[in-house]
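Slack export, channel: ligand-projects

TW: morning all. Re-posting the request from yesterday since it got buried. We need the structure predicted with the small molecule present, not the apo form. The ligand is MGD; the SMILES is in the block with the sequence. No rush, but it would help planning for next week.
GE: picking it up
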Amino acid sequence: MPVHIEKPTKAGGFPSLQSTLKHVLRSQKTQQNIKNLLRVNQTDGFDCPGCAWGDNKAGAFQFCENGAKAVAWESTGKIVDRNFFAEYSVRQLAKQTDYWLEYQGRLAEPMRYNAATDHYEPISWDDAFQLIADTLNGLSDPNQVEFYTSGRASNEASYLYQLFGRLYGTNNFPDCSNMCHEASGVALNQAIGVGKGTVVLSDFDAAEAIFVFGQNPGTNHPRMMNALRKAARQGCKIVTFNNLKEVALERFASPQSPTELLTPAATTISHQYLTPLLGGDMAAIRGMAKHILESNAKCIDREFIATHSAFFADYEQSVRHTDWQQIEAQSGLSKADIIQAATVFSQSKTVISCWAMGITQHKHSVDTIREIINLHLLCGQIGKAGAGLCPVRGHSNVQGNRTMGINEKPKAEFIDRLEQYLGCQLPRAAGHNVVEALKALECEQSKVLICLGGNLAAAAPDSAFTYSAMGKARLNVQISTKLNRSHLQVGNDALILPCLGRTELDKQKHGIQKITVEDTFSMVHASTGMNDAVSPLCLSEIDIVARMAHATLAVKPPSMNATSAKSIDWLALRDDYSLIRDLIEQTIAGFEDYNQKINVPAGFHLTNNAAQLDWHTQSHKAEFNASALPDSIIADCSSQALTSTLPVLLLQSLRSHDQYNTTIYGMDDRYRGIKGKRNVLFMNGDDAKAQGFSDGQLVDIQSLTNDGKLRKVYDFMVIYYEIPKGNIAAYYPETNPLVAIDSVGVGSYTPTSKSVPVILTPASSNKINILQR
Ligand SMILES: Nc1nc2c(c(=O)[nH]1)N[C@H]1C(S)=C(S)[C@@H](COP(=O)(O)OP(=O)(O)OC[C@H]3O[C@@H](n4cnc5c(=O)[nH]c(N)nc54)[C@H](O)[C@@H]3O)O[C@H]1N2
Ligand SMILES: Nc1nc2c(c(=O)[nH]1)N[C@H]1C(S)=C(S)[C@@H](COP(=O)(O)OP(=O)(O)OC[C@H]3O[C@@H](n4cnc5c(=O)[nH]c(N)nc54)[C@H](O)[C@@H]3O)O[C@H]1N2
Ligand SMILES: [Mo]
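GE: finished. pasting the full token output, ligand included:
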């Protein structure tokens, strides 16, 4: 029977408000959450734990529907304590869905896994820290520990965490960025000498054109929709490149505009909407550059190229050698459409390009982002008001984490300054990223896993491999707010350390503490919680990290490599976070007068050299990249794809409107018309019919990889959908078992979760779904 999907004609509007209210009511703390929402992103309020988009702290509501879900999800009345864990064994919990696990409430006391009973049991905080210290100090090599970080940790927490890890002796800092915007950091660093975007929020007012590549802001950065809506209404031309027709990028109604809220009225967002094939953006952008060069368009900024750039001649030649046939075939777009987009680019005095996971999670992501940068350099579209590059970050402080040194490959200058201050040597060899960390755990070269937030088990690729790797850790330490699958990957010993969330008051010896975060525009500002802690046994992340460090490093000389290090008073830093900021000020460039500058409501901007046309690259210029287009998108991802007898489709794994990464808030995806289910497969009707699949039929999905291992998920419902032929889409994390651990981006090591070659078969009867077992 055909599946009836009701895709709305516009995004935002009244249903957004309804949904906000529904989630607030469900939190069981309605009054508090209404108060919470009024404090989101306000002066003296807390930073929204949703996404990393910036705001101007200008009064009015600064939250969106999905920010409200994130706040209400954290600020719930339900708790998970010793009674809960006495009731369920780990084996029983592992059979539950991700939604069920997190829905049980907030983790409320520290717990230790008992392998004999298969239950988590209470442990005192002191004993937990002692266990960590004893385990770490019993290892023969500091590189046997993996220090994972997810992007919600504050600047203060992540700074202390990296300091602890480095003084202990390792650069093993895998983080969520490795699975997210890593390719952006790599490409931007190579080309312009800084791994961050060059624009600020006000640039969106001054742009004549905005290009949005591979991003779904209606769901994942809803506050960005206000900037896009305002720009569109001012006549700015927005050009979207997205594999799917995402409704918010077509028509958006601001919940803050009475007419758009209450009538069918909405603002048309995209001037042009292109639907390239998965992984085909590099070809499309190359086509734009080719048209601009071939037509010798006026926008070519010869002066900028001569003064500020290197390797233009190589690039020009590479573009001339790329033929239109390959461009059209690989992008799936017509030459005419590409020329239309190129014309918007070339005729606009100021252009911003934004991008997110649709660009970064492919095999050739680094080259694709280099091509976006090439186009901007060609037309001098960087370092002036209204123009520049904007990788739109995901987690609310993921950019700040990197600034604070959460990086498995720290820059030499960063280590130099830390060493100078500390008076000791720190490790310099590159540590492990996420994929390397999992592999090291799997072969038992690494023995301990510590996670500052996040849900590595469900976020990482190749679930079977990841579960096995995490289960081999001698000790698995999870610092978390909610129960999730990472707590269930237990071998010998594991700890759940419950922490405060953003919304909660953080009281320490020296009073109520604020923390700081950095948004996607490099604005650093303060955040203060307002609710009482969900349980007196929850500690702040900073407290937990400081006490781990204190317990571990007190008995040994700091760092197994270090000699006469300045001693760090971890507990004093924990008592007064302004002392951590003083330490940051002394050891990281750009944080002068840190404590004073965060008293300003909107905070302060970290200097971006590239935005000032100061290029910290090898050549001291902005560098063009002359890579040729990949030979083939599918075959580059899997050699098996060439010999398959069944049609090979390319799968992207993406987010629904009701989830935050591995946190599932509900079963709907309103903007795509999906209700009550997540095991759906968006498929072109012609592709489906060619294989005899009817709308609503259940199929199994098997990925084609290089190692020949069977990776399969079961019972996905085919939904006939507007998507380019040859491409399919399904939700993450349900499709993570399909992404092979070795399938990573060139130069970025990011799992290629937006290009997974797969084959489909009618649903079979014998299935063992790896996700819940
Ligand atoms: N509510 C909510 N907010 C979030 C998150 C969340 O899960 N929920 N996650 C946060 C995090 S960590 C991140 S990184 C961001 C993620 O934000 P997004 O990057 O918007 O996240 P995805 O859902 O992965 O969406 C990818 C988009 O790219 C498109 N796409 C996929 N492949 C291609 C391609 O090859 N070419 C083109 N042109 N388009 C493509 C997809 O159709 C989809 O619209 O959001 C952050 N904000
Ligand atoms: N197939 C596929 N895989 C992907 C992606 C994809 O698009 N497709 N996207 C990738 C991306 S972009 C990312 S960023 C990663 C996400 O990877 P992670 O950042 O590791 O995962 P999250 O789901 O954001 O983590 C959710 C958990 O964080 C904890 N938490 C929430 N708030 C706090 C807090 O304030 N403090 C602490 N300590 N813990 C907290 C809760 O316990 C919750 O269960 O997944 C990646 N994996
Ligand atoms: Mo992300």
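GE: first-pass observations. Residues 50-51, 66, 180, 213-216, 219-221, 241-244, 246, 276, 278-279, 281, 356-358, 394-395, 652, 654-655, 659-661, 754 surround MGD (ligand 1) (CB under 6 Å). The domain at 639-762 is CATH 2.40.40.20 (Barwin-like endoglucanases).
TW: perfect, thank you
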